[in-house]
Amino acid sequence: xxxxxxxxxxxxxxxxxxxxxxxxxxxxxxxxxxxxxxxxxxxxxxxxxxxxxxxxxxxxxxxxxxxxxxxxxxxxxxxxxxxxxxxxxxxxxxxxxxxxxxxxxxxxxxxxxxxxxxxxxxxxxxxxxxxxxxxxxxxxxxxxxxxxxxxxxxxxxxxxxxxxxxxxxxxxxxxxxxxxxxxxxxxxxxxxxxxxxxxxxxxxxxxxxxxxxxxxxxxxxxxxxxxxxxxxxxxxxxxxxxxxxxxxxxxxxxxxxxxxxxxxxxxxxxxxxxxxxxxxxxxxxxxxxxxxxxxxxxxxxxxxxxxxxxxxxxxxxxxxxxxxxxxxxxxxxxxxxxxxxxxxxxxxxxxxxxxxxxxxxxxxxx
Length: 366
Ligand SMILES: *Cc1c(COP(=O)(O)O)cnc(C)c1O
Description:
Layout: H1 11-23, H2 30-43, E1 47-51, H3 54-64, E2 72-75, H4 81-89, E3 93-96, H5 108-114, E4 119-123, H6 134-144, E5 147-151, E6 159-160, E7 163-164, E8 170-174, E9 187-191, H7 194-203, E10 208-210, E11 213-214, H8 225-256, E12 262-263, E13 271-272, E14 278-282, H9 290-299, H10 316-319, E15 324-325, H11 330-338, E16 339-342, H12 350-364
Parallel strand pairs: 2-3, 2-4, 3-15, 4-5, 5-8
Antiparallel strand pairs: 1-9, 6-7, 6-13, 8-9, 10-11, 12-14, 14-16
């Protein structure tokens, strides 16, 4: 079986984790600080505040911006549930825009159409490893005085015109096991704002400025030194891993060009796509349905996945939620019917890549 994702922890990482285990200092401490400094350099951002998860990072971002009841946050409905859950958790209302039909990230014109006097923030999702249209988002945010929170959970290392994601607004990254950079569970908020960075640091630690001095109502959103050690040890290879995924994507796209009914991932000019996923669309003129193709690839030993089978508002828990507004978004719904992610991970061999291409071609070529 060719798996969709391959999580590998090398011996250097094992040694780094064991060192922390033997140190007696397991919770957030100096290794977390080292990880933050290293991430700051790797990502090219001013501040990194690591958190216990990407969801915690999203919630903390909105909390330090003061978003809450009465505020509307505009986001994409074509995303993981965490994006919506985080907005609801801070008590703000969710408004959905549609997505761009080609890159499947926030369609800025459609976002502009749902902005009201209550809108307080835009929350674009950098889907599959490609940044949303951050220039468009910046213009719209400036026009209406909106805050920007970037869901960069899938976009570790992505950039627009050389500017890393997570530097326009607050950037929320996830270090979940299958993400581009992982600590098992974990996340981070990036920001260029010194004041917000210190607030984020306090918020994740029960709102304390110093021990037992509570400056704000906070949470426990800390990462452990054990997790941080796992992350730190991977950072030396993170660049090569991204480059390998990008190479694999180029190879897949070159070989899958011109297959009837297959729309290949679009890389926008100026955007650094880190290919967290390599996602094709199976259109109506394909020989198989999307689900048929997925089943046939599975039968041939190739694991694929549908991220995501429904627009977020198409789940009753959101549709019936008083804080979530659910106007239909046709491009998001079309994407939900058509997308299929093929393996692109850094451990694929050349023979496996060829096998994936040959299998797709055999199944779809007319
Ligand atoms: C993974 C993910 C999250 C949440 O991250 P966790 O670390 O699992 O909490 C949020 N948004 C998107 C788009 C994701 O893919």
